[in-house]
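Hey, quick one: can you model this chain's 3D structure?
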Amino acid sequence: MKTFLDELYDALRSYLEPYFDLDVYMDKDRLQGGDFFDPMLASELCHSICMILVYTPKYFDRVKMFCAREYKLMERLEQNRLDMLPQGSPEKGLIIPILFKGGIKYLPPPLKTNRHHYDFSEYRLSHSPIIRNEKYEPFFEKIAEYIYELSLEFEQLDNDPCADCDGIRLPEDKDVQNFLGTIIPPFPGR
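Sure thing. Here's the predicted structure for all 190 residues.
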């Protein structure tokens, strides 16, 4: 997983570089002892144009709810920001799912039915680096253009989409448990 994420990060940075002087944020240090990761991560998400969601079957987990909490925060930010656009953008979203393992059959309903995704589920680390892989390389250009177009739309706004980012917090575990109950079948014996 780490190798794939590092390659994905490098590829996204490379394709976004011609469009932005901004950096791609990836939470590599979340589990450092003593860090207050919730406020930092929530702030980074809030100051982002989009969230790239790297989906594996354990992304939405009933025990380790970090990813579900990030998703629900970005979903809330997405709704608020899309409502700011003049005509709204019902065809656009700020969460871009990338399927890494498991494929479409394991994708939960909110991601399967409502969002276009990029399918990297056949990618193997034995393949050429992802940035030079003929099958996946075109996805990066599409993602970069999409994010750039969104940034142009947000630049036209009178209101700063990040104005409310100070003090923003991830939802608590208890706040995402109901959501997880709707997308994850109960495990027998739990």
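One thing worth noting: The chain is about 40% helix and 5% strand.
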